Model the fold of this input.
Amino acid sequence: MGILLRNAIEKKRDFLINKLINEGVYKKNDIHLFELTLTDLEKEYIKIRKIEEKESYSDDSSPCLKI
Done:
């Protein structure tokens, strides 16, 4: 069971690292992404998603009408 959990965590870390790199984030406070914990990666990813949501709602159209 420990191996399955470790593999799941590594898979999620890799996913988050790839998503952050695709958004142009390579480091956090001069620390490379692969050195961060899963929790830190999740926090950075959530921060990026919130910024994207704010930018997508900043135009004149109603958020309810977005496709």
Notes: The chain has one domain: 2-58.
